[in-house]
Amino acid sequence: MYRLSLPGRMIRCIICDFTQEWGAWKKRLDTCQFGGGELERYECPKCECVFGAQKYLDLEEAFVDLDYRVLYSRYAEGDSTSNEIKTFRSLNPTSEGLYLDWGCGGLWSKTVSTLRSEGYDIWGFEPSAQTSGDFIVNDQSLISTQFNGIFSNNVIEHFREPIEQFRYFHSILKPDGVMAHSSPCYEWSYAFTRFHTLFLLGKSPHVLAERTGFKVQDQVQDGEYINYVFVRT
């Protein structure tokens, strides 16, 4: 039924705003392992990102938030603490700095507690957490300061409005702030879930940075671990 609404519709790239009619887009198809049906994503000929499915991008934020809460009520990620800490260290952090773990996960991640025990002033934000706890909040409105660094692991591929999200990061980073986002989805990987709406292939990480007041400072790949470091300009 949703597909019937697509012919003739104009589809806009969520990184560079390139827009063309649905029928002109090169498409990649997959199936959601969480019951989300067929996933039709689009290859941008201008910035090279792959985005979609459009049916998920079109949903209201409140519905998506509920969808995540339902997912995490019965599904847990693997322990990603080691990769998160690896990404944090790519910021070249100092004990005097203030840092934010964006999308810090639930019970499967010990990043915030581990790094705080090492003496780092680090806080976490996790919108899918049931309640805010010690050093972790679930409401973005509770973030009221600026940070020396922001980092995430396996989060950037979930952004439905990456330009708006990066501009928000810019607003909560100090003038010389740095952020790092690691994800296997800088390549065409893990496309079997509707929750992954962005694949930053090709030059798209640089386009995203340039449009939002950042520049790419570094890129590291070790197997599936891919990390981009962005510096605020």
Written overview of the protein:
With about 230 residues, the chain is α/β, with parallel strands linked by helices. It has 2 domains: about 70 residues, no CATH class; about 130 residues, Vaccinia Virus protein VP39 (Rossmann fold, 3-Layer(aba) Sandwich). The chain has 6 helices and 13 strands. Strands 8-7-6-9-10-13-12 form a 7-stranded mixed sheet, with helices on both faces. The model has no long low-confidence stretch (mean pLDDT about 95).
Please tag this protein with its features.
single chain, 233 residues, alpha/beta, Rossmann fold, 7-stranded mixed sheet, 4-stranded antiparallel sheet, 6 helices, 13 strands, globular, SAM-dependent_MTases_sf, Methyltransferase, methyltransferase activity, methyltransferase, transferase
User: What is the CATH third-level topology name of the largest domain?
Assistant: Rossmann fold
Number of strands: 13
Give the radius of gyration.
18 Å
Shape: globular
Oligomeric description of these chains: single chain
Structural class: alpha/beta
Largest sheet: 7 strands, mixed
In CATH, what is the homologous superfamily of the largest domain? Vaccinia Virus protein VP39
| Order of the strands making up the biggest sheet | 8-7-6-9-10-13-12
- Unreliable stretches (pLDDT < 50, length at least 5) are none
Number of individual domains: 2
- The run of helices and strands is EEEEEHHHEHEEEHEEHEE
Number of alpha- plus pi-helical segments? 6
Query: Which CATH architecture of the largest domain?
Result: 3-Layer(aba) Sandwich
Query: Could you tell me the mean pLDDT?
Result: 93
The proportion of residues forming helix, as a percent range, comes to 10-25%
The amount of beta strand, in percent, is 25-35%
CATH class of the largest domain: Alpha Beta
> Kindly, what is the distance between the CA atoms of the first and last residues, rounded to a whole number of angstroms?
45 Å
